[in-house]
Amino acid sequence: MPTFSLLQISLDQMIGRDSFLEAAEGTETVAKADLVQYHRDLFGIVVSRIPHGDAVRIKAALDARGFPVEVVNDDDLPALPTDFQVQRVDTEGEWLRFTDSMGRVASRALADLVFLSAGQVSKLRPKSENILNAAKSWRQSDPETRMERVYREETEKEFRIEFFFWTDPQRLKLSLAAAKAIFVNGRSIQLHKPEDLATGIAELRALLPDERVSTGIRLPETVYPSLRAYEEEIRWSFHRIAKNG
Predict the structure, then answer these.
(1) What's the whole-model pTM score?
(2) Start and end residues for every CATH 3.30.1390 domain found in the chain
(3) In a 10 Å sphere around its CB, with 0-12 CB exposed, 13-18 middle and 19+ buried, how is residue 241 labelled?
(4) pLDDT-based confidence at 25, cuts 50/70/90?
(5) What pLDDT is stored for residue 151 in this prediction?
(6) Candidate CATH numbers 3.30.70, 3.30.1390, 1.20.1260, 3.40.50; the one for domain 4-76
């Protein structure tokens, strides 16, 4: 059975959480906890993978609250391609030069560039550490058996810059984290130097018109609530580009 998504008409639209939950009240196909997350991650795609009847009913409730949306078949929403990581980008006339961490260079025509996105996201990454188990006797255990490996997740900030092309590889990503640096037109950029990052983003923004760049390109200080929100804005933008020709 086909499923549907509700999409914002404009990213400038805002709706309070309580109003959003009231509009979706009684939806059996989406748990309330998931609706709370949908509201938190609101960046173009309002809710996904629901039956057509629920989509139409929620649309009417949101429209009545001054938050107009459109109903779109999920089969018509583009999936994002796999990303390939690079460390450096240089703009040279009608070409973009990408260099990966191994020093390999690839050239892409600027005319092949479809969309630019950027923004800060938070992601969980696994971390392990050794701790001393005080419950074990020093006399009965050797040092190796007294140590235990503990696994946990920690939040890591990441600033992404991504280039989407018509042809393969369609998605190239520069990833900036606390212990990493990226390079834009020869400039080294690090997370603790926001002025350099803003300059680099401004140079890239000039490559495409505003309707083909993300909020994070127009406003580099944007912090996305999640990676899902960041990627859903891209999917929403692709749908708008295809719809408008």
Answers:
(1) 0.85
(2) 4-76
(3) middle
(4) confident
(5) 65
(6) 3.30.1390
